[in-house]
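Per reviewer request, we include the raw input and output of the structure prediction for the construct analysed in the revised manuscript.
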Amino acid sequence: MKGIRVKEFYGDDAIVTNVLFTQMHSIGARPVIKIRKNASPGRYVGSRYRRRAIREYQEKGRG
């Protein structure tokens, strides 16, 4: 859809993928997605934007 700008993308933990986080960053959208409790910000694997979101979530004491 041309001409539509996504500012925020809402989803649940069932759709969290590395590709999704990378795509949201590339279009400038903020992913508002619940992170799984057992999510791991493993090094060198997947999207750095997803890892950053997991670390932020864990630093807030929710992980």
